Amino acid sequence: MSKSNSLTPLKMLLFSFHATNTIILSYLPLYLKYKGLNGTEIGWVLAVGPLASIVAQPFWGYMSDKYKTVKRILQICIVGLLITSVLFFQMDALIAILLMGAVFYFFVTPIGALGDSLAQRRADDLGVSFGTIRMWGSVGFATSSLVIGEILTRVGIQYMIIPYLFFGTIALIVTFRLTDVKVDSEPVQLKDVTTIIKSKPFVIFLLFIMLLSITHRANDSFMGLYIAQLGGSEGLVGLAWFVGVLTEAAVFATAGFWFRKYHPLIFIIIAGLLYSIRWLLYASIDNPMFIVALQFTHGLSFGLFYLASFSYVSRLIPKLLQSTGHLIFFATFFGLSGIIGSLAGGALIDTSGGGTLYFGMGILALAGTILLTIYHVLPYGKDLSAQKAD
Asked: Which part of the chain is the Major facilitator superfamily (MFS) profile domain (predicted)?
């Protein structure tokens, strides 16, 4: 089987899953507003996903490492996504939305992490750039954000379940053609997982990048509402995501040419500076079209940040525990950060408006960048980052 053929199902999985992810990320806040929830209540619902992911990510990662399969775990999670999404979108009362949302997110949140973990391993096996595989997730996200945004503007936000199920079904179908990972070792034990948690540089690194990822996740949750506050439509929200994710895809696609030239932490620090500037610019504008215009900085900030963080974390984790380590990273990046970003962001956008929220995000990102710079400069951070734990 040729390289391109063996990677096609994986690229299609990333494309279709991230297409579903767009629908939740971009339009769920607007859908909940349509259901009658206010900003604080929307923040609570959006925090349920990250809360569920803190349990779900390590659990499914451990199951993947224990049974030495990413493919089967992906299939279980996608079937769960299809069944629970139908129930989730039928809920009207806040408590029912929160409870069903927790079950829904338990299956949904690990899919992106498992897909990326599989992509990282397949890239290593075949000697290709991880970014050239991962870019297909960004292409799916961008395509969906533009097309679905236009459709929902015309037919109404209440129909967002239909395109969600369409892309989810495609994701399930292509998993049957995936090439699974092969790990030649004894099955992983729970005690092995403690080696990751006890790694001080790994834990300190996660704490520092949280200051950046909190701002990233707050933007994920509230950019749509901020654009609406400034007078923009659902179509404009879709266009904003399209512009951002298109540049993200370009960063991933070209990673093979520039990424290995410097230490991953250098790229993370650059991304932190870009995040700080980006949020402060967002805070100062009063026309939603300026957000769309500035969204090209999403690809540069998130693209650099995600690639470099994922690469750096992969260096710190033994091969036996790659899925577990990657999903602990995801639980922090999208879980803890998402809870804080959703709850604090929801309260702040309700009481003080989007401008104040984005100004606070800019200051927080700057603090995280300074701490990561100190971490990189210290010999302690450098020494461990150079090790390969195999």
From this structure: 161-390
pTM listed for this prediction:
0.79
Closest CA to 111 of 299, 271, 334: 334
How many structural domains are present in the chain?
Answer: 1
Are the beta carbons of 269 and 305 closer than 8 angstroms? no
User: In the numeric block, which tokens belong to residue 91?
Assistant: 């809920």
Q: List all residues 6 or more positions away from 308 whose beta carbon is below 8 Å from its beta carbon.
A: 259, 264, 265, 266, 267, 268, 271
Sign of CA dihedral 221, 216, 362, 293: negative
- What is the residue-wise DSSP string for 199-213? -HHHHHHHHHHHHHH
CA dihedral 145, 135, 293, 357 (to 10 degrees): 80
User: How confident is the model over 293-345, as pLDDT tens digits?
Assistant: 999 899 889 989 988 988 888 777 777 777 777 778 888 887 888 888 888 88
Q: pLDDT by residue (tens digit) across 268-283?
A: 999 999 999 999 999 9
Residue that is written with structure tokens 């991953």 in the block: 264
Cβ atoms 181, 121 nearer than 8 A: yes
Q: Is residue 166 part of a domain?
A: yes
At residue 21, the 3 state secondary structure works out as helix
Domain that residue 295 falls in: 3-178+187-385
Distance CA 129, CA 313 (A): 16
Q: Cα separation of 23 and 27, whole Å?
A: 6
